[in-house]
Amino acid sequence: PAPAGLPGDPDPEEAVTDDSSRHGGRVRGFPHERGNWATHVYLPYIAQEEFLELLELLVSRARTYVPSLAAMEEFHLSLSQCVVLRYHWIEPFVRSLRERLAAFHRFFCVADQVKVYTNQNKTRTFIGLEVSAGHFQLLELVSEVDGVLEEFDLPTFYKDPSFHISLAWCVGDLSGRLEGQCLRELQDIVDGFEESAFLLRIQWEQIRCKSGNKYFSFPLR
């Protein structure tokens, strides 16, 4: 067992009240508890000006169907679910990730298919760009990340993942309003955007892990 009294790892019975109004009405997938660190492994995407122009077109059109839709401010492609780490697990977790991911090289994928998603408990709906090429390399990465998660007895990634970059979100399950005609209009915007073929062929250069307020980077070779 880990020694008691580690920094940031107080009594597990000391819970914190979560106020959803402080983060746009979003509801946590699990209750916040002191000493528990929400942890996520992902590929970061740095948006270019042209990508933000495309995003503005897509969100503007989608808001004619769901006015409460909000554009994402940061972009990524997930390689894990959001899991809970105890404070004293973070260092060995990151070390294991670094060892397993060290051999991976940079690679491209294409994310150009508009799709609507909801989270597991149906409290949020997302519009995302699904990957149409590069799936095999992403599955290889997930396999290694899953191996680390299994070491710590944590939930692995989804069995048949739809790899995607989320673009916008809203509270509640509003997928019915966004699918069908709205989705077709959004795909037409992507297909007709002058820079889309260049923008949406993405080279991944690093993997990141966020645990609470800590960030760890794993450069691809």
TrEMBL record:
<dbReference type="GO" id="GO:0016829">
    <property type="term" value="F:lyase activity"/>
</dbReference>
<dbReference type="GO" id="GO:0000175">
    <property type="term" value="F:3'-5'-RNA exonuclease activity"/>
</dbReference>
<keyword id="KW-0540">Nuclease</keyword>
<comment type="function">
    <text>3'-5' RNA exonuclease that trims the 3' end of oligo(U) and oligo(A) tracts of the pre-U6 small nuclear RNA (snRNA) molecule, leading to the formation of a mature U6 snRNA 3' end-terminated with a 2',3'-cyclic phosphate. Participates in the U6 snRNA 3' end processing that prevents U6 snRNA degradation. In addition also removes uridines from the 3' end of U6atac snRNA and possibly the vault RNA VTRNA1-1.</text>
</comment>
<dbReference type="Pfam" id="PF09749">
    <property type="entry name" value="HVSL"/>
</dbReference>
<feature type="region of interest" description="Disordered">
    <location>
        <begin position="1"/>
        <end position="29"/>
    </location>
</feature>
<dbReference type="InterPro" id="IPR027521">
    <property type="entry name" value="Usb1"/>
</dbReference>
<keyword id="KW-0539">Nucleus</keyword>
<dbReference type="GO" id="GO:0005634">
    <property type="term" value="C:nucleus"/>
</dbReference>
<keyword id="KW-0378">Hydrolase</keyword>
<dbReference type="GO" id="GO:0034477">
    <property type="term" value="P:U6 snRNA 3'-end processing"/>
</dbReference>
<protein>
    <recommendedName>
        <fullName>U6 snRNA phosphodiesterase 1</fullName>
    </recommendedName>
</protein>
<dbReference type="InterPro" id="IPR009097">
    <property type="entry name" value="Cyclic_Pdiesterase"/>
</dbReference>
<keyword id="KW-0456">Lyase</keyword>
